[in-house]
Amino acid sequence: MRPDGIVEWYRWAIEPWHEGDGRIGGIVVFREDVTERQRALADLAARERQFHDLAHVAADAYWELDRNLRFTRGGREDAYVGLAPWEIPGLDAEAPTLKVHWADLHAHRSFRDFQFPIEESDGGRLHFTVSGDPLHDQDGAFLGYRGVIRNVTARIEAEESLRASEARHRTLIDSINAGVFIAQDGRFVFCNRRFAELLGTDAESLQGAACETVIVPHHVELFRRQYRGIVDTGTADGEEIACRHQRDGSPVHLLLRAARIEHDGRAALLGTVADLGERRRVEEQSRQAQKMEAIARLAGGVAHNFNNLLAVVLGNLELLSPELPDGPLWERAALALRAGQRGADITHRLLAFSRRQPLRPETVDVNELISEIGSTLRQTVGDAVAVETTLAPLSGSPMSIAPSWTPRYSSAVNARDAMPHGGRIAIGTVNAAIDDSFSRGDGGAAAPGLRIALSVTDTGAGMTPFVKEHAFEPFFTTAEAGKGLGLGLSMVHGFVAQSGGSVELDSQVGFGTTVRLYLPVSSAPARAKPKPTVVQS
Q1: What is the pLDDT of residues 440-486, one digit of tens each?
Q2: Would you call the peptide bond into 403 cis, given omega within 30 degrees of 0 as the criterion?
Q3: How many independent structural domains does the chain possess?
Q4: In the chain, fewer beta carbons within 10 Å around the N or the C end?
């Protein structure tokens, strides 16, 4: 140590000096100043300690492999020293991704951010990423590996939690019956399944598509103004937009509600849409049901009072007729009696339509019934009209109306009248399941459950929208005067509705008509059927 306190380091070497005869003649002393070398070694040791301290607390840990791919440094407190990477406890060395990684190590290839899990003894799982480069000497010989490893468990768990949360929210959004979308810069960045269904496509096809591509061409400019208005005001409540169905090009009218939001740090629009077409159809069905109910009440009230009057008239005519001698007076009384009975028959039909006539439902085998009435029906419709039946195996017996099978015949006779020059009538049965959303075209409310659907289809002229709208109303007819009362389909509607069933009418001008009766199924065995009779409508 020098007087100023600075430590100096020297290396001393002492060797003997020999005379010519071999005797030691003295010593030779060599001194080398190694102060700078010692200072460099001390600095290197300090840096090494600093490196280990930083590696201990840093997110990235340092590791090394020798030329035999065994750790010379690695693991907590160097616990992996002497092990090969595939011998690390808790590591599934046979996993396909790790087998690829082992191949990279044996091929002395560099790798970056390779991710793998390690199972802990307590059942937990840790996730790591590792990066490394091979080491070579100046001649290119492989010396081993050096790299870093990072614990990314917190990040992986956060990502998995986020994915699970997104999946739950996606399931929730896809389960609602409203279309939901997010638009940014005029393009869709998200839409749920219902929104895609309304447009006749799938959510993946809409991802990234320009919003204007789903708008009908003559509404694009209107949509642009609506879009800008939402951006400016922040909301839109009850805007109607006309979109284009992506499969058939037909217009789809939607009711839009939207709000301005922030998505991925930028302004976007969150919108919900409802199908105006479906809403209008439901409203129309409700109006039709209310109209039919009002007509039924009116017809029932009139028929009830008229039936009371007819009872008095017919009673007196029946008492008077035996007292009259044969002759003009008796013939007039008989004519009046027949007219009164005809009026009573019409009254009973009106009461059936208004559901005021008590009915006695009974179970029947529909397929057997149709088979039995086939020949009678062919005689009724004539040779110019072919009658075909397609009867599916049925899972039960429907409840029907006794003693008349008017609903079946009324539809068939109407079908015959629609084909004055001949044609084809197809009668079929099939099992049908009705869910909560089922609603028949006549506005009738059908409870969920199993039904037997009986259909009558003709190849006649079909109905105009006006005729179809009024087809179930009593006394509405397109027949010539004196050829029909217009009570056939109204009786069908009344009978089936009073039996807990429902009626559906499909018709288009030039393409014929189909009437479907949805009859409730009974678990009781089918009873013997009365002989069917034809009632002209």
Answers
A1: 444 445 667 788 888 888 888 888 888 887 787 776 777 665 555 56
A2: yes
A3: 4
A4: N
